[in-house]
Amino acid sequence: MTIKLGIAPIAWTNDDLPELGAENSFEQCISEMALARFTGTEIGNKYPKDPDVLKSYLAPRGLNVASAWFSVYLTTKSYEENVPAFIEHRDFLHAMGAKVIVISEQGHSIQGLDKPIYQDKPTFTEEEWDKLTTGLEKLGELAKEKEMTIVYHHHMGTGVQTTEEIDRLMAHTDPEKVSLLFDTGHLVFSGEDPLEIYKKHHSRIKHIHFKDIRKDRMAVVKESKMSFLDGVKSGVFTVPGDGMIDFSPIWKLIDENDYEGWIVVEAEQDPAKANPFLYAKKARNHIKQVTGL
After folding, report:
1. Family assignment (predicted)?
2. Domain of 47, in residue numbers
3. Any idea what the CATH number is for the domain that residue 55 is in?
4. pLDDT tens track for 6-20
5. Three-state secondary-structure class, residue 61
6. How many domains does the chain divide into?
7. Does 156 score more than 70 pLDDT?
8. Contact assessment for residue 185 and residue 212, using Cβ atoms and an 8 Å cutoff
9. 7 membership: H or E segment, kind and range
10. Rounded Cα gap, residues 263 and 153, in angstroms
11. What pTM does this model have?
């Protein structure tokens, strides 16, 4: 099978909001992932940092590492300042058998700040765009040294969020060096059309996040000028099959374009309100219904 299904630990313990799921252990998290019939995971802050130790926990549960998030600051720091941490991250993921590295530019990002996510969205200057695209290509070359690929994560509250911004990033980077992560939830949250993005950039998409959106919560986030993290706490994100997104036409495009790689459920919620195991099972059942996987 060329498509593998994973789930992110952020539903059990939120790295950006450590108080969400602080009571949930690493072992509980990965055991429930396996019980919900997923075969992959991304990396959370409770995961062991030693590859051999991490493998000793994942292997008995039939889990592999799909990827892990890496923040870059190419618009606000020099390229050279970003490199050491990237190489360390790359080498860890390589040791875990991952093929892609999730990257997001966090220069000027407001996703972790107490600012309204819609109204205060940052934008890049021409000079910053140039720093970003040239820097990403260089990081892509470093990834290729390990036969890996960087996949860019468009994200709410950052300078690469909208269709226009995604299009610009893709147009000004080498397809051999920079690929794209396709995140259904962030596109809908931003007001973009996931089908348009997939049709336009399917050849560049090397990693996929499936998350759903609660339409009523999204409206409140916008109208109340909520921050990204307050939106998360309010329940704007949920798992596939529990929100407003129709995954059938999205899956049709994924299937028709012979996508190969991971589809990772990533739906950050408050685990005290949304039991991670039950929602993981809900997501897995919906994906099975829609895709047959």
Report:
1. Belongs to the IolE/MocC family.
2. 3-291
3. 3.20.20.150
4. 999 999 998 888 888
5. helix
6. 1
7. yes
8. yes
9. strand 3-7
10. 14
11. 0.97
